[in-house]
Amino acid sequence: MNHLDKKIRAFIKLGKYLQKEEIDTKLHNLIIETENNNRWFTYKNTLQALKIWADTLTKKNILKWLSKYSFNNEKIKIIGIIMAGNIPIVGFHDLICVLFTKHIAVVKTSSSDPFLIPFLYDILVKFEPELGKRVIFKDKIDFVDAVIATGNNITIRNINDKFNSYPCILRGARNSVAVLNGNESTKDLKLLSDDILGYYGFGCRSVTKIYVPNNYNFTLLKKILSKKSELITLSDYLNNFKKNKAINEIIESKFHIVGKLILIEDKSINAEISSLNYEYYDNKDSLINEINSNNKFIQCVVGNNSQNRFIKFGEAHKPNLWSYADNIDTIEFLLSL
Known about the structure:
Blueprint: H1 5-19, H2 25-37, H3 43-56, H4 59-66, E1 78-82, H5 92-100, E2 104-108, H6 116-127, E3 135-137, E4 146-150, H7 153-163, E5 168-171, E6 175-179, H8 186-197, E7 207-213, H9 219-229, H10 235-251, E8 255-258, E9 261-265, E10 275-281, H11 284-293, E11 298-302, E12 310-311, H12 330-335
Parallel strand pairs: 1-2, 1-4, 2-3, 4-5, 6-7, 6-11, 7-10, 9-10, 11-12
Antiparallel strand pairs: 8-9
């Protein structure tokens, strides 16, 4: 992969740049500007997202990720990237994928997160000038050869209507679930609380539903979720919590108040912000079959299980470079154009 060496070195440098204990003034100011633009993107959450990228962009990870591909496609295409804005820097992986090919990216960042990805790209260009002129940031995507888009289901339908004759990766809304067996340790459940409440539950990798065995004892889980959720002070989240509590009282659903979180017995995978659905199960094999049948709605499955589908507690918001959204291999798609 000699022709990739310069790019690999640039991304390794970016990872080390983000690892620095003291961030530089410009990045610090951009994080503040991001929070001012979107109150859900708190300074702490954005810093966490940057730290995850710092841990991800290592030589070992990058080489492992790229080793399965043959970058022999000499064609240069214009790739439109329409980024989501549910959590900070969520569209950066799509941009990285394009940069490791020979294509050019035309990027529409989310209005919720317009500052950080252009900044990270500028840093990359400083580390490797040959990456310059490979990305164009625009308010509107047109005149492209292919499209990668992520958003809510309405947005994706509109994009599909516009670009239905183009090669596309279109990702709509998904959620993540966790399967508990009743033998989880305190550490496991604390890590699960991160999967549930990280980014206030906005990410497609956020756990919005848990499956628990019949007669599950909620005592320890409630204690942990209560302690963690009580730390939340963001007024937007608290307003959601009060609204959802009132709605569930009116419709007389079966729910429990756990700190600043509502546990609701509900078969739905999707849960409102400040809520977590739960459902009892009898047989684990039957449950796995049910989860697999709902595959198109589920991003991650968390739990202590040896099956490949499962990821460990606390890992939901820490995807690897090869952990593709919706299990669609973006590099493979780009190399096929």
